[in-house]
Amino acid sequence: MSRYYLVVILLILLSAGNSHEQEIQLNALVNKNPVSVDEQFVYSVEITGSSQNLPNVDLPDFSDFMVVGGPSTSSSFQIINFKVSASKTYTVYLMPRKAGTFKIGEAKAVFKGKTYSSSTIDLKVNQQDAQTKPSQQAPSRKQDQQSNDLSDVVFLKVIPTKRTIYVNEEVGLSYKIYFRTNITGNEILKLPEAVGAWIEEYPTPQRPQIFNETINGLQYNVAEIKKVAIFPSKAAKLTVSSMDMLVDIMVRRQRTRDPFSVFDDFFSDPFGQVVKKKLSSGELELNVLALPETGKPGNFSGLVGNFNIQSSIDKETLPTNDALSYKVKISGTGLLRYLNQIPVEFSPDFEVYEPKINESINKKEDRISSTKEFEYILIPRVAGRQKIRSSSLSYFNPVDKKYYSLKIPEYNIEVTKGKDMAVGVGSGTVLSKEEVQLIGKDIRYIKEKLSDLRMIGEMPFHSWWFYLSFTLPTLLLGVAWMYRNHLEKMSTNISYARSRKAHKQARGRLNQARTAMKQGKTADFYAAISSSLIGYVSDKTNRPAAGLLRSDFLHLLQHAGVTENLQNNFLNCLDEADYCRFAPGDITSEQMNEFYKQTEKVFVELEKYF
Amino acid sequence: MKNIIRFSFLIFVFIIVLNIQAQDYQSYFQAANNAYRQQNYEQAIELYQNILSQGYHSKEVYFNIGNSYYRLNRIGEAILYYEKAQKLDPRDGDIQYNLELANLRVIDRIELPPRFILFEWWDNLKLFFSIQQLSRLISILFALTVFCLILGLFNKRYRLRRWFLYFSAVAGLLTIFGVYILIIRTGELKEVHWAIVLSPTVTVLSAPDENSTDVFLLHEGVRVSLNEDRGDWVKISLPDGKSGWMKKNDIGII
Predict the structure, then answer these.
(1) Residue B242: pLDDT band by 50, 70, 90 thresholds?
(2) Per CATH, is B193-253 categorized as 2.30.30.40?
(3) How many domains is chain A partitioned into structurally?
(4) Shortest CA gap B231–chain A (Å)
(5) N or C: which end of chain A has fewer CB within 10 A?
């Protein structure tokens, strides 16, 4: 490359005399035109003049290109034939971003109030050549070697640990650089990216180890430049974009039919030239499988790897409103980033705070291993035997393609009543308006008097008054009913009424007889007796009293089933009363009294038959 | 006649004996009240319990035991005894008030959907009187029915007679209604059992077995209804429909 500026310098030296009038000159040039996309080129601006103090040059805008190196400056100062000639060269290493034609603008410098500018350069950028396209295949030896095609000298290759993986399974991508020449520097331009996957980078070693590998008969030095782990998050084809890097390599100069080759040989580095080369690993396609459905546990949360679990509580006995720490630690190979909680359910008697989560990823081993610790702070609000129920966390092990379940054991905690009880009301309760008014109120005082002591289990219907209160009115009602019936009959049924009244009337007449007897009214006495006897039988049998003959009485008495003796007694009494009534002789009060008793007796006897 | 005399003598003796016993309990009760006044709540409970252990109870005894437990901060027991007191007299304001206060300190709140207003009225009507009061009322109503009926039967004035008969019919219907409620109430007493959770925290299980799965958690003071009894275990249910098994010694039956 340097030969180009030598040419320029030579030209300037040759033309020094001619350029005397012009105090300052700006000359811009590129070392290559056209260039291919991934090819590096040099843009340089030389400012020459006869002044010792050459101004600084404003470089044009390089936004269309990648600035790979520079700008660097070099200056020279000569006095030839008493003529001062100074020059300063600005060098920028550039690389095109894309194909097309680009204009590199003017470089400018201001000298003694005058602005000088270089010419613009139209640079053509060609599409990448087939040969220079990086591929995972080792470059063929038969390849037509162009001056800048160094793909068999150095290339970048991505080596996945697996090409077919499960969702969330780790696939390690190893980016290795193969080289057959010295590499003096490297710089990663772009890291691999993948949509729909989590990428975890392994730390890059300071000094990568270098191995030997032979590809197609060529021996390469191999160094792992980068290692990443990819965890695909969905079951589909996953495309990992390429990793791009830039390396500084030593290239042995090639002989060309360059007319300045003599100088080249003379000036060039004895070990070769340093060339910047862009390397690309190329895209990588991975096949991502969905996790098998068979045997998938219901609580599966998507963990893939190989894990184990540890849990602990810091105390087993504590008072209410004190804090308890419950820790669950999951560790193993695989990614735990997406595990945000553990499937443990706490009793509502605990106030549970958001867990404190500690996550660490270990990338020192071959595979990524992580540890995630959840620390829950629980505050029991209620005394009693509380427990943290056991729960389980399941994961899929991609090695043996099976699901496993990790069990978090159950913890029993004895919660004692703490001293600082909440004021009256249980926590977490919603109170109604009426209830709110009761807060802070005290209970009403005990009852001082024992009003009603009863046997336990005694029912009102076990007590006599209850039954009495039913039977007594019922009986009363029955009696009343009967009495009412009687009254009704008396008023409607003459024979019944007469029959019911017969005794009463007979009694009344007998009483009349008695008064008559006491007054000595013999006739009245016998008349009353007679009418009482006749009245009684006629009332009882519902016959008109008048016109009843002695034979009729006999008949009626016989009909009522009265004994013959009583019949006779009755008739005798009747006869005697009639006789004595109309033929009162010497009848003593004793006789009357006797007769009265006799009649009474007859009545008593008769009562049985009527 | 002789029999009647003998019978009434027996009743007389019985009443006297009852009175003597009542005097005895009256003194127990006063002693317990004194202990309560001196804030000797545990002793007070013991003395009140003496009355109960003799086979006698009253709402006052239950109420005062409830108060003593409340003072001892044992809300489960307090509620149990208030409930027992309320069972004897559903309309006692003091019991209602203290029960409400005690229930405020229960952790579990069982939210119920609002009930149809008619059911609410019916329940209120049903619980308006205690069983004692209700049976007395029925007796009075029945006597009134009969009295009016008799007056109606004998009254000669047609108009008055009609009024008495109407009155009697109304009283009679009320009596029948009262008897109906009494039958329902006593039936409920026999069939529906309620209990209060006494342990601070109880895990209700899905089966009468320690190793069965947990269904839900209950705390001291919650009222549950008892559905089944199997040895040490009882099946309980909550008004919102949840049910499960728990150990018998975690509850107190009202």
Answers:
(1) confident
(2) yes
(3) 4
(4) 23
(5) C
